[in-house]
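Lab channel / #folding
Pinned by the channel admin:
"Please post every new chain as: sequence first, then the structure tokens as a reply. Keep commentary short and put observations after the output so the thread stays searchable."

First post following the new format, from NK:
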Amino acid sequence: MIKRLVPPKNWAKLEVTPNLVLSRSDELRLRLTWVGILYGHIKADMAITGGVHTAEDAIKSMMAGARVAMMTSALLRNGVKHIGTVLEGMKAWMEQHEYVSIRQMQGSMSQKSVAEPAAFVRANYMKVLSSYAVR
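Reply from TO:
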């Protein structure tokens, strides 16, 4: 028996239904992995969009190779003053780890910067597997 697909009720109207879903920090891992893989292999500035909420998230983004870390969800949740909190956190981290600029840290944790590039993807995969918890 073949089932006939029935289109949704608003299909005939061809309407777009807006649906805002804010990102979370735990969505950052996949973005970091791909920026880390692509950094230095393509001639483009990369931006990480989604999952950047804290100073640590922004630092990870830069170290993976991003030139920009977009924080729209974090700003919608916490307000514009959150930018100052993130900048202060980044500044403190950079001083503690003796970085003088973001440019200096950019791409330092990318696949291109590791001794064994093939291990980069494998190591990230293993981190994901080891972080999995049965619920």
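NK: The chain is about 45% helix and 5% strand.
TO: also worth noting, The chain has one domain: 24-120.
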